Amino acid sequence: xxxxxxxxxxxxxxxxxxxxxxxxxxxxxxxxxxxxxxxxxxxxxxxxxxxxxxxxxxxxxxxxxxxxxxxxxxxxxxxxxxxxxxxxxxxxxxxxxxxxxxxxxxxxxxxxxxxxxxxxxxxxxxxxxxxxxxxxxxxxxxxxxxxxxxxxxxxxxxxxxxxxxxxxxxxxxxxxxxx
Length: 179
Prior knowledge:
Blueprint: H1 2-5, H2 8-13, H3 16-23, E1 30-34, H4 42-49, E2 54-59, H5 62-72, E3 83-87, E4 100-106, H6 115-125, E5 126-137, H7 146-155, E6 159-165, E7 169-175
Parallel strand pairs: 1-2, 1-4, 2-3, 4-5
Antiparallel strand pairs: 5-7, 6-7
Domain Methyltransferase type: 32-133
InterPro entries: Methyltransf_11 (IPR013216), SAM-dependent_MTases_sf (IPR029063), UbiE/COQ5_MeTrFase (IPR004033)
Protein name: Menaquinone biosynthesis methyltransferase (2-heptaprenyl-1, 4-naphthoquinone methyltransferase)
């Protein structure tokens, strides 16, 4: 499964451009990826936010972060300097309140034991009017229906913004209240 998660085959099925567009990721944003794994989409997001933006790639598993670090050392990725690797637990995000324009999670939320606590932590670190983008993909063994993802986000106090995609691959976007 590990080879599939960070493969060109997966990226054909789950286009990075489509994922970035659906998530609302834009140039200059400060972004947090929860559960980055080996970085299947991290480099694409880093290039999208550009030199004025930053991507914080958080994972609880040191081995995943090591794989991403190795990926960043490859010649095709040496130009990327706006990714910060963070070993951390999504239940207790190591960031100040109102730190990020956008947080995204790709096939991760369902793997976390206390989903409500994690979503509240994400809400805490988002700026007012910030975006949480949750993307799910049906081959994932923990795949939830859109209605489940929407319910979890709303229970955590997030505001549903947009739902895009189909049964096989979707993104649900939430926002925090603006001040």
